[in-house]
Every structure is written in structure tokens, then in C-alpha cells.
Design brief:
Pfam families: GATase (PF00117)
Organism: Methylobacterium oxalidis
Protein name: Glutamine amidotransferase domain-containing protein
Helix content: 40-55%
Shape: globular
CATH class of the largest domain: Alpha Beta
Length: 284
């Protein structure tokens, strides 16, 4: 039985806002997604950004097969108690040698923990979906992206990005807006696979994220009114409910890499399969 640790770095106020919007925090979404991919796995959730947070009683990092870092509104280029606690946790994960995976802010946390840098997006707000993510030479042969085509779209909502990867990291994918869309980072005793986008999110949660960030979308010039944001989010949510609606997919410019849940979850499935292979090798 695989054992997973989900590290939810959303601060409490963001956690509650997300629950009000879509009914679950980022960590709770991860738990549901992981159990759908690995039925029977044992999953624990911790909140490393929170003061006084720690592992479950009696647990140690060595007892887990993999660690998962969620998205978060934390800005990793700002030194605050919350970012400091989160980065210190990630350094402990690297030191433990336990493989880890992260999406969006998870990639940024791992980058900073290993000596890289993060900054505000310089080419604009990537909201709703990251378009035409393209594999690098390393990405075309890396197991994290096995099954992805040469170019694909994915759910994404972020205002920050990786500026410089740590020394020795592998750039696996990027697009016109965000140069680092997927990467492998090796630091200390550990290895991290991460993406800037959100394979764990259903389209209902993408719609909820757009609505929560309406003011930011207006400020960025991506919409001219609250009504435009709501109309777009309604279409995304409708496609979640009816993923085979070709008219909605056409209007939104999406294909099966996003609308098909199995394809959308590619990176998480690949990481879990890699953990299973590693566990099997240890037991032989």
C-alpha cells in the first residue's frame, strides 16, 4: 500500500475562500485526486505554512512513499514566516530523499528550496489554461511527461513564475507565457518533479478559480467586466459537467488533453506509477 503526504501551503484565509468557492481546499482536492488514481493508498495532509503545523503524531517523512505540494497564493520571492516555513519543509523533504511532486506554487517552493528564484509573471497573467505547452528535448524522454503530445494545454492560474531553475535542474516544458512549465529538480538527497499548471484540477475548480480572481482578471485586461468573467467561467463549468460537448470545447479552444480527465491527470499518474516501481524495486 502506497503512503502519500499532501503538503497544503495555502494560508488559512485562502483555504477558506477556496472552500466557499468549490467546496474543498487545495489539499483536499489533492487527496481526492490521489485516491482516484491509487485506490487504497493511505494519504495524510499537513499545512506547512501554518504556525505550529507538523507531521501527524508518530509519523516521519521516511514513512511516506511520496510527498505532494499543492498550489498556493504565497509569493515565494517574499520572505515571510509562511514562506519561510514552507521552504524549510521542502528542504526537509529533499534531505529525506523521499520523491516529491508539486503543481503551480509547489514547483516554485521546490525551486526556491533548492536555490533557484521566483518572480511575478513578466509576460502576463496565465489564467484558466496554459496554452501550447511544448516539450523540451529532456521533456520528450522524461517519464513525468510520458503520454503528452509535443504541445498541449492544461489548467493553469498563476501570477508568479520560476525565474531561474536551481543548478542541475532539467527544464522539461515551457510555453510563450511561462518559460518553465515543467521541471525535474535534484537537490540534497531528493528528487522533485513539478509543473507550473494544475493537472489535479477539474474544470469546475478552474471555473471557481476564475470567479475568485475576477478583480485580478479585470486589472490584467483579460476581461472588461465581471459579467464577461462569469460568462467564461460558466462555459468552463458547463464543460466540466458535460465533457463531451464539442461546441463548448470548440468555443474554449480545448481538446482532450484538458477535457478528458485521464489525459489531464497524466503527470500525477506518471509520478505515482514511478513511486510504485521504486517501492517494488525496494521490496525485491
Amino acid at each position: 500500500m502506497l503512503r502519500f503526504l499532501v503538503a497544503e501551503s495555502e494560508p488559512p484565509e485562502a483555504r477558506e475562500s477556496r472552500r466557499e468557492s468549490v467546496g474543498r481546499s487545495s489539499g483536499e482536492t489533492y487527496l481526492d485526486t490521489l485516491l482516484s488514481l491509487a485506490p487504497g493508498a493511505r494519504c495524510d495532509r499537513i499545512k506547512p505554512a501554518d504556525a505550529g503545523a507538523g507531521l501527524p503524531a508518530g509519523a516521519s517523512l521516511a514513512g511516506y512513499d511520496g510527498v505532494f505540494l499543492t498550489g498556493s497564493p504565497l509569493h515565494l520571492y517574499k520572505e515571510t514566516p509562511k514562506t519561510r516555513r514552507t521552504v524549510e519543509f521542502m528542504r526537509a523533504v529533499f534531505a529525506s530523499g523521499i520523491p516529491s511532486f508539486g503543481s503551480c506554487a509547489g514547483l516554485q517552493v521546490a525551486t526556491v528550496a533548492a536555490g533557484g528564484t521566483v518572480r511575478p509573471n513578466v509576460r502576463g497573467y496565465e489564467a484558466g489554461f496554459a496554452r501550447r505547452i511544448t516539450l523540451t528535448e529532456h521533456g520528450r524522454s522524461h517519464p513525468l511527461l510520458a503520454g503528452r503530445p509535443a504541445a498541449y494545454d492544461a489548467p493553469a492560474v498563476h501570477t508568479d513564475e520560476v525565474e531561474t531553475l536551481p543548478e542541475g535542474a532539467l527544464l522539461l516544458a515551457g510555453n510563450r507565457v511561462t518559460a518553465v512549465q515543467a521541471a525535474e529538480i535534484r537537490f540534497d538527497a531528493g528528487v522533485f518533479w513539478g509543473v507550473q499548471y494544475h493537472p489535479e484540477l477539474g474544470l469546475d475548480e478552474v471555473a471557481g478559480a476564475l470567479l475568485r480572481q475576477t478583480d485580478s482578471l479585470l486589472d490584467a485586461g483579460l476581461a472588461r467586466s465581471q459579467g464577461e468573467v462569469e460568462a467564461y467561467a460558466d462555459q468552463v463549468d458547463a464543460l466540466h459537467r458535460e465533457p463531451r460537448r464539442r461546441d463548448l470545447a470548440w468555443r474554449l479552444g480545448l481538446d482532450e488533453q484538458v477535457t478528458n480527465a485521464a489525459k489531464r491527470l497524466t503527470e500525477l499518474r506518471n509520478f505515482i506509477e514511478a513511486l510504485g516501481r521504486e517501492r517494488g524495486a525496494r521490496q525485491r
